[in-house]
Amino acid sequence: MPRIQTDNSYQTVITTFDATPGTCQDLLDALTDAYEAFISKQPGFIAAGLHVNDAQTRIANYSQWERREDYQAMLRSDEMRKRNREINDMCKAFEPVMYEVAACFD
């Protein structure tokens, strides 16, 4: 489960994917498989979540890592490079952005 706290040292990555209603489920399946089979087993991985909008035109992904370098190493792996090429073919665009938690509200 993601840990959203201002006093942590984790690397938070939020990625948005632009899809179409015709490709959204395929993209979601590919992302789910990537997390279940590979990403979640990588060093430094903490947690992630996938979110889909009602129109099935956007997928948002929230992931946390122990260190920025852990996330970067996962991205640079041969396995993830191959998967990202396939994911790219299923969406109009995707953009991962690294963030720090600025505030939390319960």
Automatic annotation (TrEMBL):
It comes from the Bacteria. InterPro entries: ABM_dom, Dimeric_a/b-barrel. Residues 11-101 form the ABM domain. This is Antibiotic biosynthesis monooxygenase. The keyword Oxidoreductase applies. PROSITE patterns: ABM. Keywords: Monooxygenase, Oxidoreductase. Pfam families: ABM. One of its GO terms (molecular function) is monooxygenase activity. The lineage of its organism: Bacteria, Pseudomonadati, Pseudomonadota, Alphaproteobacteria, Rhodobacterales.
